[in-house]
UniProtKB/TrEMBL annotation:
This is 3-dehydroquinate dehydratase. It is an enzyme of class 4 (lyase). Catalyzes a trans-dehydration via an enolate intermediate. InterPro entries: DHquinase_II, DHquinase_II_CS, DHquinase_II_sf. Its EC number is 4.2.1.10. The active site is at Y23 (proton acceptor), H100 (proton donor). Pathway: Metabolic intermediate biosynthesis; chorismate biosynthesis; chorismate from D-erythrose 4-phosphate and phosphoenolpyruvate: step 3/7. Belongs to the type-II 3-dehydroquinase family. The gene is aroQ. It comes from Agathobaculum butyriciproducens. GO terms for molecular function: 3-dehydroquinate dehydratase activity.
Amino acid sequence: MKKVLLIHGPNLNLTGQREPGIYGSNTLASINAEVVQKCERLGMECTVFQSNSEGALIDRIHAAREDCDAIIMNAGAYTHYSYAIRDAIAAVRLPCVEVHMSNVHAREEFRHKSVIGPVCAGVIAGFGKHSYLLAVDAVKSIIG
């Protein structure tokens, strides 16, 4: 069975409470449950990881070399400036889909650039929790 790692970066643990007008009212736990269930329906296993720490995110990306076939990642604010996360994604050589619940291009200027996007298979943004579910479809099409 193919294995997918779903990674959430800083502040995403507050999803459902933090700025619901931007991020919606669904909790991260409910989004994770939907992603896990969709992966199972598509014949994939999904492991979920969240951290507010850049180093912990990098360590988990590195570990994915041993136990995953693909990564779905919402790096939160690290998307826009963490070259270390970008380099970790490039180093593990696993397909990665970058995800954002909000349309980052309709928000503040600093959110318009992703440093991790160029090493990802693709970027899905602006569809709320459905961005994650669309990413599952994308990963399935990549890894089979």
